[in-house]
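Reopening this one. Same input as before:
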Amino acid sequence: MSAGTTRGADRHTVRVWRSPLRGAAWLVWRQHRWTVRLFAVLVAVCAAGAVVLRLRMAGFIDSHHIAGCSEISRLPACAGTQDAVAAFRARYTAPVNLITTAMALLPAAAGMFLGAPLIARELEHGTARLAWTQSVSRARWLAAKCAVPAAIVLVASSALAALVTWCLRPALDEVSGVYWYTQRAFDALGPVPVAHCLAAFVTGVLTGLVVRRTLPAVALTAVLVGFLTYGFATVRPHLAETVTTWSASGATDASELPDASWYQGGGLLTASGVRLPDASCAAGEGYAACGDGHEVVAAYLDSHPVTQHWQLAWTESALAVGVAVLLAAALFPVASRVLRHR
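Same output, byte for byte:
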């Protein structure tokens, strides 16, 4: 073959893309490539739906001039808008609730269907032993098994959380009656679902490693993620200082607060500066006499205003990531004990 022919063949050589992953990481990627494709399709479908829903909700609110209005509103600008608000809720509350519910269940899905079977299936079927015979240490095998699915969880949950936050921004207020501080809405917005997904995923991996059976690990992961969700919801009100509002009418319920405020409690203030919980004086004929007996001078309400939403969200997310890191740190010592005799 002549030199000219060789140079011509070189010019037409097809370059084949090679993955930067090697060894165990490449094998794990091959095992989960269909999961990545499924998540990509899911995110694409959700993106299309989010754009349509956002545009329709925003268009309805603008065309009917009901921004910030509720079915019973004191704002002069909202006079006569009750029917329009009711029509908005009838049309869009169900999609909003569906989206927030799906996002609230996303961490459980990540833990049950990605985390729990990840190690449990390998141990249950004995396929892990084949990997260990290919000059792969058990620590490296565990790291490779966890890294790729964790990246999938991080990217997919981040994309979905960003889409949902952008989509629901016009409606999570008085118009829909679904507020930022409700359980489903808070768990669906910003960094919270991403951090919860990471914590749930690591919980599932650790559970599968200990249980070593796929179905029991999936079931136990569902229970543990439920406990995690309950724990985060319990500590959430205490992650930021409440703001005190002094009641002009003497009422100690949420009626004195702006609709976007998360009511935390109320009570009475005595002349000596002592705060009495609202239950100290029972409502009824003796309420006024009780207040006079305690020398009550004012009523107060504690709440988290809407301006604290992102502070609460980022603080809880940091807490959830901390839980994920602690559980991940426990993976290798637990694995060394569990896998030592296998």
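So the earlier flakiness isn't reproducible anymore. For the record, The chain has a mean pLDDT of 82.
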